[in-house]
Amino acid sequence: MGEQGGLRTGWLAAFGTEGYEGEPPLMEELGVNFGHIKGKTLTVLNPLAPISQHIMDDSDLAGPILFFLLFGTFLLFSGKVHFGYIYGLALVGSLSLHTIFSLMSPPADHETPSSSSSHHHHHPPPSSHHGPADIGGNLNSTLTFPRSASVLGYCLLPLVLTSLVGVAAPMDTLGGYAISMLAICWCTYSSSGMFCAVGRMRSMRGLVAYPLGLFYTGFGIMGIFSSKGSGALATRAGG
C-alpha cells in the first residue's frame, strides 16, 4: 500500500470512505440537501405560514422524485401499477404549467441603477415592432423549469398521504372523495403560494391556482380509483 495524490492506494483502500482533504460530501455533490428537503416539506405541510421568495433558489429535484416514487409505490401496494401514468402526467403537466406561469410572471430585472445611468445616452430609440415574446410574455423570468418542477413535486405530498390511506381503506366512498378533495385543495393552495412567491405573481393567485387544481385532480383521481376495494360505491349504487 502506498499514497498517491493525497489518497492511499491498494485494494483495502478501495472499500474505505476516505477522500481528499476538504472534499464535500457525496450527497452535497449530487445536489441532495436533506435540510432543504425538510424545510420545503414543512412549508407544504403548513401552507398558512409565510413563504420566502428564495425558498426554491436551489431548485432540487430529489424531494419531488422521492414523493412521486412514494405515490406510485403506495398505489402499487393497493394492487395497481401506474408509474407510467404518474411520470407521464408529471412531465406533461410540468412543461405545460411552467410555460403558462413563465408567460404570466414578470421578467427578471438584471439591470442595476448604475449601469442604467451609465448607458442612459446610448440606448437606441424604442422600436414599434414587438416580437412574440413581448406580446405573450417573457420566458426569461425568475421561474425556471427546475424550480417549477420542484414546486409541483413538493406540493404533491398531501396526495401522497392520501394514497397511503388508500392502501388500507377504499377511497371510492363518500369519505374517500372528501379526503381526496381536501388533499387536492391543500396541494393547490400550497403550490399556488409557492409559485406566486417564486414567480412574483402575488396579485394573480386565483389564475395560478386554477390550472394547478386541474393538475393535482389528475393524481387525485388515480388515488381514488387505485385504492384498495375501489368500485364499491358504484356496486352499491347499481345494486
Task: Describe the protein's architecture and organization.
The protein has helices spanning 26-29, 34-45, 62-77, 83-104, 113-118, 132-136, 145-154, 157-168, 174-198, 205-225, 232-238, and strands at residues 3-4, 7-8. Helix 3 packs parallel to helix 8 (157-168). A hairpin with a 2-residue loop joins strand 1 (3-4) and strand 2 (7-8). Strands 1-2 form a two-stranded antiparallel ribbon. It contains 11 helices and 2 strands. With 239 residues, it is mostly helical. The N and C termini lie far apart (78 Å).
What is the element layout, followed by pairings?
Blueprint (H helix, E strand, L loop, with lengths): L2 E2 L2 E2 L17 H4 L4 H12 L16 H16 L5 H22 L8 H6 L13 H5 L8 H10 L2 H12 L5 H25 L6 H21 L6 H7 L1
Antiparallel strand pairs: 1-2
Structural class estimated from helices and strands: mainly alpha
* Radius of gyration, taken over Cα atoms and rounded to an integer in Å: 24 Å
**What spatial order of strands do you see in the largest sheet?**
1-2
Low-confidence spans: pLDDT under 50, at least 5 residues? 110-138
Mean pLDDT: 76
The CA-CA distance between the termini, in Å, is: 78 Å
Question: Given the structure, what is the number of helices?
Answer: 11
How do the helices and strands follow one another from N- to C-terminus? EEHHHHHHHHHHH
Question: Would you count the extended β strands for me?
Answer: 2
Shape: globular
| Largest beta-sheet characterization | 2 strands, antiparallel
Helix percentage range: 55-70%
**Proportion of residues in extended strands:** under 5%
